């Protein structure tokens, strides 16, 4: 009778091991989140040339050490553009500092004119960059 119980228990143990491995993979996905963060400062030239990349340095804060750059969220209306940063938080155990991260924003204008870039710095405020494209 004891041999029969052992034979029944062995598959249950293997099933438990397989399920615990699968659960670890799911936990990795749980430790990745995205959050829109505010821009703290912008360093930009004032002029540029049509169809050439203008590099703009963007600094933004994250709420812990796992935060980094995810992507830019852009809304355009004519020559006016609003830019937000979506931070990506990767990791389940993070330092509790709130660092400032730096990322390069690339702007390309397809026509001559004046452009206004509004970088979201709070829920109601923006850091505005005015560019003249020749």
If you had to describe this structure to a student in words, what would you say it looks like?
- The chain starts with a helix and ends with a strand.
- The chain is elongated and about 85 Å long.
- With 134 residues, it is an alpha+beta fold.
- The strands form 2 sheets. Strands 1, 3, 5, 6, 8 and 9 form a 6-stranded mixed beta sheet that branches. It has a 3-stranded antiparallel beta sheet with strand order 2-4-7, with no helix packed on it.
- It is 22% helix and 50% strand.
- A hairpin with a 5-residue loop joins strand 8 (113-120) and strand 9.
- The protein has one helix at residues 2-30; strands spanning 32-37, 39-43, 47-48, 54-61, 67-77, 80-90, 100-107, 113-120, 126-133.
- It has 2 domains: 1-30; 32-133, no CATH class.
- The chain contains 1 helix and 9 strands; from the N terminus they run αβββββββββ.
Summarize the topology.
Layout: H1 2-30, E1 32-37, E2 39-43, E3 47-48, E4 54-61, E5 67-77, E6 80-90, E7 100-107, E8 113-120, E9 126-133
Strand percentage? over 45%
Number of domains: 2
Distance between the termini: 90 Å
Compute the number of helices: 1
Mean pLDDT: 88
- Strand runs, count: 9
**Biggest sheet, in brief?**
6 strands, mixed
- Classify the helix fraction into a percent range: 10-25%
Rg:
25 Å
Shape: elongated
Structural class: alpha+beta
The sequence of SSEs as H and E is: HEEEEEEEEE
Low-confidence stretches are: 16-25
Organism: Bizionia argentinensis JUB59
Protein name: Lipoprotein
